[in-house]
Amino acid sequence: MDRTLLGLVLHPTRDASEIIRIIVDWAARHGKGLAVRDQDRHRVPPSVETYPEDELVRRVSALISIGGDGTMLGALRSAVGNPKPVLGVHLGRLGFLVEVEPPELPEALDRLISKDFTVEAHSCLVCDVCGDDVVAFNDIALVRQPGTGFVVATLAVDGQRYGYYRADALVVSTPTGSTAYSYAAGGPLISPATQAVVVTPSAPMAGISRSVVLSPDETIRLELTHDSGPVAVEVDGQVIREASTEGAIDIRFRREAGLVVRLDPRRYQERNQLKLSLMDLPLLPEQLRELLPPTLREQLNRRELPPPR
């Protein structure tokens, strides 16, 4: 029997027991193995194997992320050194990366093990933060601490200094991350088909006040100046360093660092278009149907059919 092993990446706090039960039942019927990280052993049945995170990624043929976009980003980061396909299952309300709803899960798992899917490659930012290497699939941000001054940093591209920022925050994002913090700070929406890096200041007070879009082949360096206030460093929304008052961040773009499973790319794009409409992008009235549950959408379609003659 094929000993396929699938890794589960769980939302850190939300109850995922119902979705775990669906996956465990499916795995038992199909003779497939499941595994989680050691720290999640108390959240799964005894039949699920446990491994340290690095070993888990090496052993599994694919990862199943159970949560929202944050959980999905964590799954992608965990596998950046050894990319594995990641299937995202919703445990939240709004997400741009996650595709599968819980009722669709058994069919999605069938397609996953039969390799009936396409892979969407995602790029990441590789960042040297004061000597520590980190990766970000959405963004890396320098954020001021309230009441302690501003983020003041110079920008250099491929070693050439271009100017400085004085702002509440500086957000460096991938195209995927352009819909997150960067967008909230006033940055542009970048097509995921584009390879680019966007640097966006939030609430700029002086210096560069607009987003800068750079080539993926350029190296970015943000260096704090002597008059900068204490700065926190966030990677995909997670604080990795607090109250830094000096130092620099070197950022490079890495192509195809993460592999996202897509079962229905066209439907996924249609859903994302609707999600983007929540960010004030235009929405056609008929597109509102996609926001309805499938059963209600079918009932509405039947009501609008012309009567038989």
TrEMBL record:
One of its GO terms (molecular function) is metal ion binding. Its cofactor is a divalent metal cation. NAD(+) binds at D69, G70, N138, D139, R166, D168, A203, Q238. Pfam families: NAD_kinase (PF01513), NAD_kinase_C (PF20143). It comes from the Bacteria. GO terms for biological process: NAD+ metabolic process; NADP+ biosynthetic process. SUPFAM superfamilies: NAD kinase/diacylglycerol kinase-like. GO terms for cellular component: cytoplasm. Its EC number is 2.7.1.23. Involved in the regulation of the intracellular balance of NAD and NADP, and is a key enzyme in the biosynthesis of NADP. Catalyzes specifically the phosphorylation on 2'-hydroxyl of the adenosine moiety of NAD to yield NADP. This is NAD kinase. It comes from Micromonospora globbae.
